[in-house]
Amino acid sequence: MPRAKKRSGRGGQQGNVQPFSDEDASIETLSHCSSLSERTSAAEEAGETEEMAQEDFQYKLKVYIDSTVDKSAKTRQVALDGLKTAMATKILYEFISERRMTITDSIERCLKKGKGVEQCAAASLACLLCIQLGSGIESEEVFKTLKPVFKTILNDGAANTQARQADVYATMESFESLFTHLYVREDGSRPSVNPQTTQLHTNALLSWALLLTICTGSHIRVIAQKHLSKLPHLLENDDVTMRIAAGETIALLFELIRDVDPEFDYDGWEPLCEKLNALATDCNKHRAKTDKRKQRSVFRDVLKAVEEGDFQSETIRFGTERMVIDSWVRKRTYDAFREFVGSGMNYHLQANEFIRDVFELGPPMLIDSAALKAMKSSRLERHLYNAAAFKARTKARNKFRDKRVDVGEF
Fold first, then answer.
1. pLDDT tens digit string along 374-397?
2. Domain, as residue range, for 251
3. Residue 175 lies in a domain
């Protein structure tokens, strides 16, 4: 006889079905509680993980600070670079303010006892420290402490050129005495300096230009009278970086003096415009293509600034915000900050209260990830927008593009 098929208790008509008891209800409740507990536990673990990561990060910073007084120059250099990277990419105000004097002492020791590269790193770290601390009394005390050391190195002709070059950003009094060495002498001759010294003078000029942005009107008049007739000679320098720095400084000085005196008249205006136009259309074969391209781009803007008082505005996007660079003053300030924080500039624009205050961006905006995601456009929307922009750009270019027409002989 065939064996009778066994029927499972689940789904079978003859299966025994047990009623839902209080015990089952308690099990179900425990299951929900267990699930909730797991989620809570996961959140707690995530918080603990983040807290541990923060503790590890702060521990590394403490090790770096301690290592800045190590006997090994290589160890000190690694420590300085580590602190620079941390300050350029994160806001560390509370951590730093508690150890401000210790860090300042370490920087001072590295500046005094270190050599070229180490002094350069220490000077850059000093600037980042002031950026982190903001515009209050804390950063002012750091500057007052380090200022004598900076001036000593800057005025020491026997000091390492690389160290002197870095220190110009922290010393705001001796810049003029540096870059004026490149002015044409009374007999018409030009001084000959090596590339490293030229770079030092270039940075001194740019830092001097940064100071101009906060000068009073009367001071700007004096500076314009003293330097505006001599700065154009720097446009003939063999170094492209110096030429560009001189051009941007001239544009900045014209912008500032016109704000103070709208009727300002410069005697050497026409020769200056001719020189700027020559640099904006430079095609000398002995110069590198990259240098010529960069030079022409900058001097087209400089020429517009001198001739028309115009500035080619630029929009900086960071997070959900935008900032417009609409003047030479704003550009010089932005470039100075970007020199130190590098790729972390957008982050500092979002979160650093001091930098936001300088650019009048208001308090930092707090937006959670969900809101940020909702504000982003979809891939299709971006594609349609780019397609429409490309079509409009093509039409605009075709409108002004030269049309080649065959011309017959007469």
1. 555 567 777 777 788 777 777 766
2. 162-310
3. yes
